[in-house]
Amino acid sequence: MTQATPLRPRKLRRPGASGLITGTAILILLVLAVLALAADWITPYDPLRQNLMHALQGPSANHWLGTDDLGRDVLSRLIYGCRIAVIAAAEATAIAILLGVPLGLFIGYRGGWWDWITMRVVEAVVSIPGIMVAIVIIALLGAGLHRAMIALGILFSTSFLRLARGVVLAEREEVYVRSARVIGASDSRILVRHIFPNIAPPLIVQVTLTVGAVLLSEAGLSFIGLGVQPPHASWGTMLNTAANYMDLNWFLAVPPGVAIIVTVLSVNLLGDVIRDNVGRGIATAPSAAARRRKVRPAEPVTVLPAPTEDEVLRIEGLTAAIVPEGGTETPIITDLSLSTKRGETLGLVGESGSGKTLTGLSVLGLLGAGVQVTQGAIKLNGTDLLTLKPRELEQVRGNQVAMVFQDPTTSLNPAFTVGSQIAEVLRTKQGLTKAEAWEKVVELIHRVGIPRPEERARAYPHELSGGMAQRIAIARALSCNPSLLIADEPTTALDVTVQQEILDLFRDLQDEYGMAILFVTHDLAVAADICDRISVLYAGQMVEMAPVAELFADPRHPYTRGLLSAMPHAASGEPPLPTIRGSVPRPGAWPVGCRFGNRCDFHTAACDHPVPLEGQNGRLIRCVHAERFKLEAAS
């Protein structure tokens, strides 16, 4: 009986450290807001009252932060400086948003000469140091806090304009925008109702970055006399005063300097939190050390045949789960065991949500943030990939295992030629020179059946048809001659003729390279065409595995029988095509016993208990009624 090595899940972040830092940043900003609003009532002295007899004093019981060159209380002026900071940040940021976002939405959606002229002006502005642009604007408007904030608002509006324009350029070509046009929605409604919500997350992050930049810029402008004018208190004017009397009282520069640093850091930390929770932050993946930790012994898993010399992939007792921060893990793949050998194609079939693609991504160690392998072993050529360090796993990807994704238009980078993308793999993994890599690229493109390979190698992905792009993706995956190729529904987006060509290509390349293929598909006809064995997955577990001929001739699991009966056979529609009622239950809502039980026509009380995966001679079935179906087939 084989036992898999369980793995302890690791949370994405340590809430003790990050939570404390976040809470501190929020508390500091709340204190800043309270001081700004209540400055008139909580300051111990009038910030403008002078007392030359007590000038340049250090901290004392009467003046906690000392006095400045005119005897004014530094603490009182620091508190009033909070008000200036809040006003400055609010004014400049609001101006930047009101100027930049609408203009960015407009030029991004309309394009043409509107976009060309505006972007040339923006490029001219951002090519000059920002402080110089602000000084020029202030020279035209005049010095003072509000005028300086207008200048900063104009300056920082370029960031919001480019952000809004970039999002609109990407979103305006999406299908949902075209659908809105089809139903007659006006341009303004499309912009506000459909596109603008997509700009909200990055816009919030940009706001926090701008607030921090405004605080620093306001302090700098006030320091050189272009912002807040004496005798009014701001952190920048306080630093200006401190610079003139550094030899007499060095401590005078500490309060405003610390206030600026702490406030800007707090704003930026808050922006990081918002980015991770609202925008597109990237959670930290579990470390290799965490994956190697051993916990309780694993439950017995499906017994696989003893490994052979030509075995390439062996998965034992694989369990993957969603592991939220501070929450309970939710399994999405459980007790999955399978193996495949050199020259064999193993198909993974099932409805969406069955765990097919996640199985392939588990092999590559590319599960998304929050999803982790928590138990099991994934052995590639005898090496357990779950025990490798990240850098060691990087060497395995591409060299020993590669993947062909479903949609080549998204897996190929539109900014580079297809030849350069294949050459990048060769130069990175095999250390080839530029000339050697290019020669190999042309050879690979020719090998996957694309005519004029040198010309096509210089093309961009959008210049190729879907079939050609998929062939390029296959060429890139095979560039380092991997022993295992994972194909994730590689023919779904293609028409029937091209689909057959791609399947023939897979067969030819497998015969030539001798690799094993893990073929993920929801199309049983495709699986029957290319696979040697098929593993049927349902709700995160295997329910049946058999050689292709046996599976199609004698399905033993009700789910497999339902999938096969629902295949169209060019019939007239009489009787109607059978369907499987219901849908795949989501993770966390699986039935206690057979997970297919609530959709099965043969459900009995025995199905309400856990059902093992049993069988022999390469055939495995997870069903208490398997013998019944066997007898029916025999009769």
Structural overview:
It is a single chain. The chain is an alpha/beta fold. It is built from 23 helices and 12 strands. Strands 6-7-8-3-9-10-12-11 form an 8-stranded mixed sheet, with helices on both faces. Helix 3 (74-110) runs antiparallel to helix 8 and helix 6 packs antiparallel against helix 8. The longest helix has 37 residues, at 74-110.
Radius of gyration: 33 Å
Mean pLDDT: 83
Approximate strand percentage = 5-15%
The strand count comes to: 12
Write out key terms for the chains shown.
635 residues; single chain; 12% strand; 12 strands
SSE arrangement:
Elements lengths: L14 H23 L1 H4 L31 H37 L1 H15 L3 H12 L3 H27 L3 H8 L4 H37 L11 H10 L9 H24 L10 H5 L18 E12 L7 E12 L3 E5 L6 H9 L6 E10 L2 E2 L5 H10 L1 E4 L3 H4 L6 H13 L3 H14 L5 H5 L8 H12 L6 E5 L7 H18 L2 E5 L3 H7 L2 E6 L2 E7 H6 L4 H8 L48 E3 L2 E3 L4 H9 L1
Parallel strand pairs: 3-8, 3-9, 6-7, 7-8
Antiparallel strand pairs: 1-2, 1-4, 4-5, 9-10, 10-12, 11-12
Helix pairs in contact: 1-3, 1-10, 3-6, 3-8, 5-6, 6-8, 7-8, 8-9, 8-10, 9-10, 15-16, 15-18, 16-18
